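#onboarding

Welcome to the new folks! Below is a worked example of what a typical request in this channel looks like: someone posts a single protein sequence, and someone else replies with the predicted structure as tokens. Don't worry about understanding the tokens yet, we'll cover that in week two.

Example request:
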Amino acid sequence: MLSSTKPPVGAAASRADRGGGAASATTAMMARTKDLELVIRHVLAGLGHGIHAGRERGAGVEFSEYRAYAPGDEWRRVDWKLLARADRYFVREAERDSHVAVWLCLDATASMSEPSREINGIDKLWFARTVLACVAAIAQRQGDAFGLLILTDGKVEFTPASRGPRQLQRVLAALAKAEPLGQLPSAETLRASLHFARAPSMIFAASDFLDWPSPLSEALLRLRNMRHDVRLLTLRTQAEVDASFKSGAAYRDPEQADGLHRMSNADRESYKQQSRAHFDGVAASCRQNNIVHYETRIEQPLSGVLRSWLQLAGARATK
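Example response:
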């Protein structure tokens, strides 16, 4: 953990209420609504990007093959007659199936409560949950199966993958309830949760990645080594990037009980250097393992961030 790069949680905002123009005002308005579906409609309007290449859809698509049932598959696709003969669960797949499930991974640990000091009402968790909700909506529109993992307070909250509008409602409800608590699950807990990734999957993970290496980074690298398509979104605040915290403000690492800390003017340059070195290391590790990685600030327009993240992933897929 790079604890020296963690921001002064709760420090007075140096540029609060300044707004930053129409985009900031729009983001602040979205943060005030409790209706995730309304926010999704606004963000996705005119987006024009999918998660992956399109596929044939509709009636008349012929049966292609059977495969063994995997956690997250829809029960309606199980061939019950074959179960009676073989005493094993098999799923019917058609030509139109993408053979890809979409998994959303939300970091809801305590550090994700870090707020913007430029736009009132938003924090890292709000931004992460909203981006992932938009990805879920795109997956639902494409007819993909999608599921959700929420990492919070040392445990994994799991929503199995499925398709359709009802599944979108389940995922949005789980995202809306997530609160920033505690630390990441242990490596053992995360390893035990990787059963969902037996079939080819795309994993969209949103976190501040202040801990790297960590149990989460190890799990993501393991998934990539299993040939899954892993796509990471690193979230920072503008204050974290330029160390514009109020001088002398007291803060406590929300995930560690190690007392109060203060940042003086003399500490800023060292903080910036260590912070940049840390996130450069995250990016280098992702490049080395062919993981799509996009770093952004939560003050950026959400639709632009989502578009850039998907475009980056799409560019890799076409190479």
